[in-house]
Amino acid sequence: MRLILYIVRRLLILIPTLLGVTIITFTLSHAFGPNLAIAVYCTPKLGACDINNPFLQPIVQQFHLRDPIPVQYVFYMQGLLTGDWGFTTSAIKGGMPVTQAISIFFPQTVELAITATVFATLVGIPTGTVSALRKDKLPDHATRIFALIGYSIPFFWLALLLQILAISLVPGWEITGGYSPSSISPSTEPWAFVNLGGTYQLFSQPTHFLVLDAALHGSWAVFLDALKHLVLPTATLTIGILGVVLRMVRSGMVDSMNQDYVRTAWAKGLPDWVVTRTHIRRNALLPAATVIGLLFAGLLGGVVLVEDVFAWPGIGYWATQAVLQFDAGGVMGTTLIFAIFLVLINLAADVIYAYLDPRISL
Amino acid sequence: MHRGAKAWLDTSGWRRRLKEYALILRLLMKSPPAAVGLIIVLIYLGIVIYDQFWVPNNDVMIANFSATGPDPPFWWPGGKAAGGWMGTTFPGIDLADAVLKAVRIDLIYSTFVVLTGALVGSLIGVVAGFRGGLFDEALMRGTDVTYSIPFLVFAIAVAFALQKRDFLTINMILLILWWPPYARLVRAQSLSVKELKFVEAARAAGASDARIMLRHVLPNTLAPVFVQISLDLGVVTQIFAALEFIGFNAGNLFLPELGNLINIGWTWGFESHPWTILMPGIALLIFTVSVNLLGDGLRDVLDPRARR
Amino acid sequence: MPPPSKDRNEILLAARGLKKHFAVKGGLLQRAIATVHAVDGVDLVIRRGETVALVGESGCGKTTLGRLLLRLIEPTEGDVLFNVPEDVFERMRANGPAATQDDGQTKELIRQYSITRRRRRSMKALRRFMQPVFQDPFTSLDPRMLVKDIVAEPLLVSGLATRPEAYEQGARLLEEVGLRPEHLYRFPHEFSGGQRQRIAIARALAPEPEFLLLDEPTSALDVSVQAQILNLLKDIQRKQNLTYLLITHNLSVVRHMADRVAVMYLGRILERKRTAELFSNPLHPYTKALLSAVPVPDPKRRRERIILPGDVPSPIAPPAGCRFHTRCNAVLPHCGWSPRDIAATAAHMFDPSRNPDASELPPLEEVTIRGDEVLLLRYREPATESNRLGVEALVKARAERPEGIAFRAIQYVRLDGGRILLEFLPAKEPELLEIVPHHFVACYLYPGVTSATN
Q1: What is the reported pTM?
Q2: Is residue B182 part of a domain?
Q3: What is the ipTM of this complex?
Q4: For domain C339-424, which architecture applies?
């Protein structure tokens, strides 16, 4: 009951935050004058890039550009709430509604983010535990150096480095190790062609999660190809966040190993693994839950770069393309969806933390 | 007391403070990782100073369009003397020269961004934490908003609004966006510092709020700020490089900047010339590793729990 | 406004009906859901040159009262008066303690002498006359400042001295508190607790104050150092004719230092008296209990230890009437018993299923408290006159037992629309009155004590 009340309070706090985000995205697209919204359609042939240009009247009317700024914001909010997030020209040739583009691109980003988080946690928690238990011994030093490099290394450079390694070590690895438009192109249609060594195969995309689609497709070759595409981007992101996870687990473990209740547990003769699991690690991992939010913020930033390097058609790749191609709808859509995603992740982390830690008064 | 004695009194105050800083430095040098970090950071600083005063044309890369192609460094398998220490990249740019120039540009601008952000953020944070009320609430909600957008995405969106994608724009974006973490950090610290009794003693002495904030509260919140500055130098340098890398190099393609150099190597096919991305990347990696080492060391030394 | 430094009036500092309430925030929107009555109507007089000790258990509001007196926090109600001539003060007192009853002339006088009604700027000019010394010398000195800057700060901010003068003064002050001038160039963390407290005293003395607030100045120090600091404070007081308010819970310190003592409990002052008389003849039961805990340096004399039952009640809902009545060993029926003191017992006692003596009553459904004087019992069937008589008999039987003192405060047992209504004596707070000359007690044990008017 108290937990529900807490969640309600947190959701109430979310409202001003998300409102703030929309104000920012709106300001970025509207406050610098009407030119931005119509700049996309301006070509020298049409004449001046100006609100009075007769050729641009449909745009002026669609975006209510003649109304005062607050009125424009109301229309903007109305659009957001009714599912009209505008039109993106950069996502796909010919353009599509932003909401539709999100439904295509978002699953691919989530796929990367979740796979990387799962791997980083699966590797990070045991390794961090060993590192803390063998403090100042060889495994600890090795882990700490790895963690240091992991959180110091720039994502985009790591992505390139892994490509170089893959090319020189794995025979037959192509430079487009990623999932590039030439191999599987995102499409408004629920299907696409997949390129398997020069032969194309029709490939259905009901969910837009690459691996899931490949499995549903039922072809072993397509599934392997999809996995192969996923390896390097996931590895890049995993190594990048593994550094943070390792540090967190290790320092949390070392802190709780020095607590009196742990000393008591040793003193009363509990077996090592019981002390480690129930007394040290459980308490060490609690604070980790709060860092999950931060981890995801970094991860989503990294996703942009990784998707760029691997031409992985997710939200990050789309965001970059939108900026490079002056696509207002794309920039606003990607910013908003990233913000909503991050805010919900943070909320989930806080709620889990509050649920797990009996000391938190809700 | 006569005049001479007074002058002596004042310098001895400063000498005492210097001794305190020297002590911090000595403690720092006791931990090998922190010492390594500090030394590398100092070497980078030396590069910056050297480039600033003794290298001509330190803000542009020297291209040689008649060069046949990128040469590997002389120590590379199959390398030639023409490649120099770090090889060359497209079009005929000597990487050793370009990377050193890039280190200067990256470090100067990231330091500028981080210090400005720390200054502005600390001042806003101490006022919010000390005064509380509506200003504090507005700050917290406002920074909540900036925290809810991944930084790189936010930077991309601002760049879009500014309709420019050059190095200057990156600087402007970072200046706009880099104070909130410091404001939150200093605010949180101020909340606990302002409850300490010396603040009450200062108020009893008749000190104004401004004086209490600047002389008493702010200095006592700065230890974590210094740690954060050290760690952020690496982060901001990485962001500069990342933004240049994804296409914010539009203003000046020959700007010596590490991300720009990596971008050049990437665009022109790095698979056959790996050194074109390895060299600038390693320069970037060593710097971020060393500021992280330094930051961790500073945290251990400045942590009040570790202090006598 | 009279410049306070020129005419040195008899009463240096006085609290008049001083209250400080803190809001407790909570709930969905962090609204105020309760109020802590930290200081709840205090009258206190501190005369020039004397040491007044303020004693009480921790959490009774002593420190809050000290902060109010220096206007480090703003009072919710009431005034702190500074530098008042005796005759003027008498006139204010003659009009009673509550501000609502003041006539225009008294109001004008209060406005003239009150420091809590001053603007911030004119308050700043007064600050130098009253300085604090806090309990914990580890947080009361700014760790980032050199000792010279700590000691010079009060002089510099009040504009009493230029920078070189202030440092010179600082060196002199350090010698006065038993440190050496070269200690000016050190940081606080280089000193021991006792030395730090000396620095804090030097800082407090810097602007040549007339009043020092000593908030538990020795309780954070080693026992071996405590006496040194107390003697230092006594020396300084004698030399500079200072006035002290000593806040402490250590009664040995009180005996050593204070001229007069005020005993505080849950935000109110219960007793005020000269130190020697208080120790030889305490009047309030709470004071008696406190003093019984002081060790007597005579092995032959044995004193009865009075152990107070229970805990200090919460200052969020202080007991009605005399605040001490819930723990008092000499309590009377009219000390302020209220329905909430017996509600739990009543639910048991008047329920036939739990108490065999109540077997002729119908099953008890609900016990309701209305205000500070009325308790309502609702039974499954509407109560009859015979039920009422049954309840009355139970109350009477209980009241005759020694632990049933609260039931003696029940005035009537009445029928109230099918329910049974128990009405208590009105709960009034005893007023702090002069029982013996110069001996003020707030307790109904002593004849002539009427209830406080607020």
Answers
A1: 0.83
A2: yes
A3: 0.86
A4: 2-Layer Sandwich (3.30)
